[in-house]
Specification:
The protein is of the alpha+beta class and 460 residues long. The protein has helices at 19-26, 30-36, 51-65, 90-102, 121-134, 209-234, 259-274, 280-287, 300-304, 307-320, 324-334, 339-344, 351-365, 397-401, 406-409, 418-426, and strands at residues 4-11, 15-18, 41-44, 73-79, 114-115, 142-151, 164-173, 179-181, 187-190, 196-197, 206-207, 251-254, 374-381, 385-393, 414-415, 441-447, 454-459. Helix 3 crosses helix 4 and helix 6 crosses helix 7 (259-274). 45% of the residues are buried. The structure holds coenzyme A. Coenzyme A binds at residues 29, 31-32, 35-37, 158-159, 161-162, 196, 207, 209-210, 212-213, 216, 257-258, 264, 314, 380, 382.
Length: 460
């Protein structure tokens, strides 16, 4: 049985910090943020929003647009790493909000959980729900997977310039109008790591940014190796000895903690894919230096303990990224997926899927026929695990993609002053106040001081 994404919607908070203001306030070179990291604006939540609100708003949008009733939804999963409760799952909060609009107990039948594994958990949720559909358990109902996060780092930390917030809702079924996932090729990789984690009671993570970036690349590459084995053994892709598996992926979507990370990941994966192909010799000539090889390869610790190797390796990567061969691949397969991230920032679990949406919209706007194109996904979550999988755009995709309009999804945003941003970040605004009213949206109205119960309302 086929299974895939029938439609998707995004919800992005209406407040943002512009890198112009941020760079000035933190005395950071704006070129580091814009050219180095690829960040122009970062979406910020208002005082009356939490990750459950963002998720409910994205879910409501997709249900409304498709005229879907609660009885049509068999499973509602929320994936997040911004959870505010250790026991009560976020999907329960979202059901509570949606029932304010659709009526009491209308979601009573609807199963689901909140999933956690840093930024990769949405991909696990997607995979599990696709298998629920493939197993024939869905019985004509949809699965709704919502990835929702608030990427918030300590004030003054190096992670602070890679913040953002938002949610993506994906409607899954057995006759998808947008994308059908490839079967039996999903590949994972996992190891116990401390690159980024948020212990109980903290509302910001402890981050080892450079370590995390390197782990991301290594884990995704390992998952790609397994993906390659699977696509070849299932006969999905039959590369000849002088071809790479990436030659068969029309578009690549990578996890985007900041948009430039996508470009770095593409360079890393291409380098490892091309190394043993005939095209590598002419590439090395163009790059003009031999590829650095770690003397004691194997673990991330041995690589990090070798600063000379890291320096040479970064130089090699930089030169590789200047070649026409790299830039052609970048423009063709990746660049459109980075556009939304530049304007919105890091969405943790939702970053990969915002990138997918961005790629669809901007490739469509170039006039390209996307039907039949194979889309590859490189998902990464700290702690750490990667997942590589793929799917094919359907013949009916235009019904969905022609409605995608990022400009209108993020229209009427308000640019925060740094004072306003810091007040929100520190939680200094009185609980019953917000900067915006949140019209036609679910908002958080109260957190009871005595028992932490949360109350929400649909602000019509
Ligand atoms: N002009 C252009 N580029 C510049 C520049 C300038 N003036 N100054 C710096 N840069 C480039 C650097 O060369 C670097 O590029 P590279 O990655 O290609 O080498 C990039 O900007 C970032 O600079 P760097 O010095 O590496 O930044 P940093 O040490 O301050 O940290 C992060 C950047 C991303 C590691 C940090 O913001 C972070 O930890 N963010 C959180 C990441 C995260 O959430 N990870 C979770 C799991 S994926």
């Amino acid at each position: 049985m086929a299974a895939g994404i029938d439609d998707m919607s995004i919800y992005i908070p209406k407040l943002y910090v512009d890198t112009e203001d941020f760079a000035e306030a933190r005395d950071v070179d704006i070129d580091k943020m814009r050219k180095g990291l690829g960040i122009y604006q970062m979406a910020i939540v208002d005082n009356n929003q939490d990750p459950a609100c963002l998720a409910a708003n994205a879910a409501y949008k997709i249900m409304k647009r498709n005229d879907i009733q609660p009885k049509d939804v068999g499973r509602l999963y929320i994936s997040t790493e911004s959870s505010f409760d250790e026991s009560k799952a976020m999907n329960a909060y979202v059901v509570g909000m949606l029932e304010q609009v659709y009526g009491p107990d209308t979601f009573e039948h609807c199963g689901g959980v909140e999933t956690k594994f840093a930024c990769v958990s949405g991909s696990y949720a997607l995979y599990d729900n696709l298998n629920w559909i493939r197993a024939g358990e869905a019985d004509s109902q949809y699965a709704l997977v919502v990835v929702s996060d608030i990427a918030k780092y300590d004030l003054g930390s190096s992670g602070e310039m890679t913040q953002g917030a938002g949610a993506v809702a994906m409607l899954l079924n057995d006759e998808p109008r947008l994308l059908t996932f490839d079967r039996k090729v999903t590949a994972t990789s996992i190891s116990d790591e401390y690159d980024f984690y948020r212990p109980f009671g903290k509302d910001t993570p402890i981050v080892h940014g450079q370590y995390s970036n390197l782990l991301y690349l290594m884990q995704v590459r390992k998952a790609l190796e397994l993906y390659k084995t699977k696509v070849i053994s299932t006969g999905l892709i039959k590369p000849s000895p002088d071809e790479s598996i990436l030659d068969y992926i029309d578009y690549l979507n990578m996890h985007l903690p900041y948009s430039a990370m996508g470009r770095k990941a593409l360079a890393y994966l291409l380098r490892h894919e091309w190394r043993n192909l005939p095209r590598w010799g002419p590439m090395i000539e163009k790059i003009g230096m031999a590829e650095p090889i770690a003397k004691t390869p194997g673990t991330i610790e041995t690589i990090l303990a070798n600063p000379d190797f890291i320096k040479d390796d970064s130089k090699f990567n930089r030169l590789l990224m200047e070649t026409d061969e790299f830039n052609d691949m970048y423009e063709e397969k990746l660049s459109s997926s980075l556009i939304a991230s530049k304007m919105i920032g890091n969405l943790y679990t939702a970053s990969l899927y915002l990138g997918f949406r961005s790629s669809l919209e901007y490739e469509h706007k170039k006039g390209i026929d996307l039907a039949g194109k194979r889309i590859g996904f490189g998902s990464y979550g700290s702690g750490s695990s990667a997942m590589v999988f793929s799917g094919v755009i359907t013949e009916e995709y235009l019904d969905i993609v022609s409605h995608m309009e990022l400009e209108s999804d993020i229209a009427n945003r308000r640019r925060l002053t740094l004072e306003e941003y810091e007040m929100l970040h520190r939680g200094l605004m009185p609980a019953d106040e917000s900067l915006l009213s949140g019209k036609d949206e679910f908002i958080l109205t109260d957190v009871d001081k005595s028992n932490s119960e949360r109350r929400y309302a649909f602000n019509s």
